[in-house]
Structures are given as C-alpha cells and as structure tokens.
Write a structure and sequence with these properties.
heterodimer, A: mainly alpha, MetI-like fold, 10 helices, elongated, B: mainly alpha, flat
Chain lengths: 276, 304
Amino acid sequence: MRAGRLPLALGLLIVGFATLVAVFGPFFAPHDPFAQDLAHRYVPPAWLPGGSPAHWLGTDGLGRDYLSRLILGARISMLIGVSTVVLSGIIGTTLGVLGGYFGGPVDAVVMFVVSCRLAIPLILVALTVVFMVGSSLAVVVLTIGLLLWERFAVVSRAVTRQVCALDYIAAAWAAGCSRPRVILGEVLPNIAHHLVVIATIDMAIAILLEAALSFLGLGVPPPLPSWGLMIAEAKDYMFFKPWVIEVPGVALLVLVLGINLLGDGLRDLLGARTDR
Amino acid sequence: MLRFVLRSLLLAVLVCLTVLIISFALSRLSGNLAINIAGPDASPEAIATIEHELGLDRPLPVQFMEWASRAAHGDLGSSYMYHATVASLIASHLPVTLRLGAIAIAIAIAIAVPLGILAALNEGTWIDVGVGMVALAGQAVPSFWLGLVLILWFGVDLHWLPIAGLATWRGYVLPSFVLSFVAIPVMLRLTRGGMIDAMRADYVRTARAKGLSRASIVLKHAFRNAAMPVVAVSAVQLGFILGGSVVTEVVFNVRGVGYLAWESIGKGDFPVVQAVVLLFAIIFVLLTLFADLMGALLDPRLRG
C-alpha cells in the first residue's frame, strides 16, 4: 500500500464504524444507558481488577453502563457533526459562491461578514447563546451551525473565482444559461469536491466544540450521554479512577482523528484545496 | 501602500463596531435578564426594581447607545455580581491570560517550525507521513481532555508539575502547552508547504550551485522565505489561542479572562461577558491587522 493511501483507508474504517455504531449501536447496547444502579457505581472496565463482564467499560457515578452510554454518545456526536455541517455548509457555500461569482461589492460584503465572524470568540459566544436560549440538542446544533461556516465561505469563494475564469463557464454563458443555472449547474458541481473536504474538517471541529461546550456545562443537557458531558461528570473522580475520563476521551479522540484522516485522504485523492 | 494601510484600518474599525453591536445583542437574547439576576423565586416587584436600577426597562436602542458611548470612553460598566467595575475586573484577570497565550505561541513555534522543516526536507517519505500524523493527532485531541490527562500524568503520577494554579513557573507549563495545541497543526503544515516551495525555487538551486552547505541553504536561504507567512499566521493563531483560553483556564483553574467570562456567563453577569467578547474581538482584529500589514510590507504583491 502506498503511504498516501493509508490515512484514507484508516479514516474510512473509523468513520464507517462510528456511523454503524451511531445508527444501529443503541439497538444492541447491553444496558439501558439511562438506568441507574447505585449499588454498582464506578465499576471498572472488564480488563482492570474488580471489573466485571456485565459492564465491559465499567459504570459511571450513578451506576449507568459506560459502554451503553458511549454508544448513545456516538450517535449524539455524529448527529451534531452531520447536522451542523449541513447547516454551516449551506450558509458558508451560499456566501462564498455569491462573493466569488459576482465579485465587486457583493464580494466585499461577504468578506466583511467573514471578517466579523472570525473576530468573534467562538467558544465564548457559543457558551453565551446556549446559556441564554437554554441548553438542548437542537440549540447546540443551531448555535454551532450558525457560527462555523467561515471556512466553507472562504474556500468556496476562492475556488468559485478560479472556476469562473474557466472556459466552460463562458461557454455556458454563451449558450444562454441563466445566472442561477450557471451557478447551480456549472459552478457548484465543479467546486463540490472542495466542499466535501471542508465538510470533514468542520465536522471534526463541530464535534470537538460540542464536547467542549458540554464539558463546560453549557452544551448537551444531562442525562444525555454526550462524551464531553461524560468527561465533565467524571472529572472529580479522575484522580482515583483515571479510566472514567480516559474511556470517553479516547472515543472522542479516535472519532475526530478518523474524520480528519478521511478528510486528508479525500483531499489528496480529489486534489482539493483546504487553505486557511 | 498608504491606500492599503488606510483600507485595512477602516475595515478593522468597521469589524470592531459590528462586534460591538453583536456583543450587545448577545446579552439581550434572553428577555429575562433581571430574572436571571434576582433568581427564579423573586417577586415581580423585586424584578421590576432590578430592571429599573440596571436600566433594562428602557428601549433597546437607548440602552445600546448609552452602553456603546460609554464603552467608547473606556467605561465598560459595572459587574452585576462583583462590586467592581468591569474594567478593573478585566485589568486584574487579563495579564495571566496574555502571559499564557504568549508562552503558548512560543511553544507552538518551537514545536511546529522544526517539525515542518523536517517533514519538508523528507517530503514523501515515512518521516513526512509521521509528522503529518502528529499534526492530525494534535488536531483531534480535545484540549480540555488533554489538559485533564496531562494533569493525571505529570501532576498525579509523576509529581513533576502542579495540578492547578500558577503559583510558580511550573504552573505555566501544562496550561500553555495545552493552549499551544490549537496552533501547532496549522503552523506545521504552513512551514512544511513553504519550505517545500522554497527548496524548489531558483535561488535555492543557485545557492546549491555555489556549493553552500546544506545547513546554510536550508536555514538562511529557504527558511527565510518560508518564515514570513508563518510569522503572520502565528499572530492570527495567538488570537485564536486567546479566544479559546476559556476551556484551558477552567481545566487548570487559572483565574484569567476566559475563566472570568465562563463564571460570568453562568451567573448571568452580562456586562462582564459583553466586555470580554469585545476585548477578545478587538485583540483578534489588531493581530490580524498586524499580520496583514506586515505581509504587505514584506511582499508588495499582497497590497492588492
């Protein structure tokens, strides 16, 4: 195998597995992820002394099965990742393509909006919005999606400008295509491969951002098992039982690494740009 | 050049004004500010009193103009929770955050630049792939989790470093290292890309033909050209590091501006939150302005 193909294969494997777990996992989870069992709090994972095969990854401070919560947490992470990227992708691509296609004052406005967005401290504003509006899965998705579109905008603007200089755009014009027709039929398909790569980058960032918000107590509300929230809930016990933060943390690390590997592999495969 | 400077300055001012409006709007997203402050069990009279005292019963545009004109004079109002002005709270919390940010960006440069050069000189080999993996892993680690794990390893298991607080220089090691992780992957890729381009350039071929040593070619000729974008980006990355300081400061219990903002958000203390959002935005705008101007100064092609 060539060195360049390894990241793609590894990324596909991890993201594919995470998708399967997110979609079907909860149906096969060994326990109810919300069922408390105060007689069995902080049972360690099966491979540690005191572990039991009834709870492969142990239990949390309320005796809830860690594996079952981790599986449902995968669904939350993937759901957040995919839906925020759809939202931010629509916003960012619309802005970027309009700016790149029309240029001039339209472009100036788009770049100004992007500059303003970049100047806003992401985590602080997200925390404030979630606090103000009240935390729920939908609020977190909307908040992150409405904040994370700048990379889509910057890249789609740059590649739209390149594409618009090419002959087939002029040909479409000459053939009498309308503006929407040129943008949707010619520009968009020809920048799509760049957008796919940006989608992976932003999905990874969105998942990490949700985990950070949940960790700080203003993300996905309990008792939902967001991985960030699991780490926050376990934090006070990590000095005595390090695995309580290691298990969800490693899950988060592997998923995000997988998405990044997939993005890197796709970028090399498709020859896409990811500047900035 | 003068036109470019003036345009950049104008843009920076406009961005700051927009953020001023956004940070004000942010604190009025929720209609029940006074209830947040008084608590859910407060009587309607108590809430009305608080609203009146804080001026929340006046029309929004009036509130905004008053706040904005005061902010323009450096008066950011008073905290709802602490008996202190917002300016004094920020003044007492900012130095720690700036110090951590500066150390973090230094660490990021010290790690990213040598690794980037190493990868570029070994382009396409397993060393290059390995360095790329380091960058990817750095991007994938949740910073709050990295902080906790490092506390466990170096604070609890090895007893090398304190687990919280900044009493001695040792306290700065872990938080600034964790902060630097935000910037390392970007700067590493940029160094690598710049060095690969530079090593293929004509001036490097000339230097080779002159029989200069490899070290001299790499450091004096190639890196000097690859370094400019890295310096410019490190200014922008410092802005991102400061904006993201809230997470690291909470993990390490460091009383910086990020911690102050997090605490204030949780208590509904919005004059403080507004001011911190505005402060970070202005710092970011100034850093990007610096990066743009320096870029334009060194490379006339960027003055477009």
